[in-house]
Amino acid sequence: MEVFRFFRQQLFSWHTGHQRPLPWKGERDPYKVWLSEIILQQTRVEQGLPYYERFTATYPTVRRLAEAPLDEVLKLWEGLGYYSRARNMHATARHIAGELHGIFPDTYAGIRALPGVGDYTAAAIASFAFGLPHAVLDGNVYRVLARFFGIETPVDTPAAKREFQALAQQLLDPGRPGAYNQAIMDFGAGHCTPRQPACSTCPLVERCVALRTGAVQRLPTKNRAAAKQQRFFVYAVFYQGKNVWVRKRDAADIWRNLYEFPLLELPKAPTDPSALPQLLLNHFFSVGHPAGIALRRVSKPYRQTLSHRIVTAIFCEFDLDENSESLVFQKNTPSDWQLVEQIYFKKILAVPRIVEWFWNERP
Ligand code: SF4
Questions:
Q1: Ligand 1 center to 73 CA (angstroms)
Q2: CATH architecture of 2-213
Q3: In which residue ranges of the chain is pLDDT below 50?
Q4: Torsion angle of alpha carbons 263, 267, 272, 273, nearest 10°?
């Protein structure tokens, strides 16, 4: 189709003058392409770049990543958020090193079958590393296609996925699938941007439907986003001499395998933060206020926004007498609590960002 040819040609010529040199561009090692794609999911390039460099330097092969302890991988990942990516990445590396004998799958179906790899990542790896004709569909591609072709289908629906995927596949240059995929994503990220697309200098301007119909700012459309779930955490930070009590999150929930302090989750926002220390003591100990424990401070509320949740956390700091260990193991104090050195806590263990923020701001 003539318009498809126009789109491809203009895109490639734009890309020739706007290539951004990044270490994973042009990379053919599927392990490194995969690593970059996992790191860049829901992450800005500037933020992901040092992590990519750190991971490829520390674990230059999939086997090296597979051999690393999970805690070490999570520590290297710290600050990037969405920790399930790191856990999946590590599990996948072990799967490739073990079941697949260290050989990365070289077909779309094989790549797509890897844990933690969705349609987008599979298409990216297949096209970049193996030159296979699979079109990527990410937020940038949705935006460019919705605007250029004037597509009104809300992009957060299954119907849109089918419609845009079929269109993206038709537009793909089968002779240069990797270069085409890179070009359209770079164009969406650098030119046809969400808020300030550079329409006046756009190589697609003469055929862009959204520009002609005044729909640039409105497209792509979305169904109303679901409200984020609010969660309220109250942490008990028990200091004991040079140590602090911590636990590892192990439930199938946010921040699994990260370390935090003993936690009481509330069903709604606390109305009186000054009552929280007593609430924690009542929860963790069988006597209302055991001897050998003194309140040090109640923190300000910290708030972290995740993809589907907003977590508000307040930290109540207590000092425990050196010999009050027996007090801790009462009532709701599971055996997974560990006493670790305060210096060791933040330096070695991977913790959620909200815990890190609190820890770094302590007086
Ligand atoms: S003319 Fe504007 S809206 Fe259309 S593709 Fe170009 S930058 Fe995007």
A1: 41
A2: Orthogonal Bundle (1.10)
A3: none
A4: 20
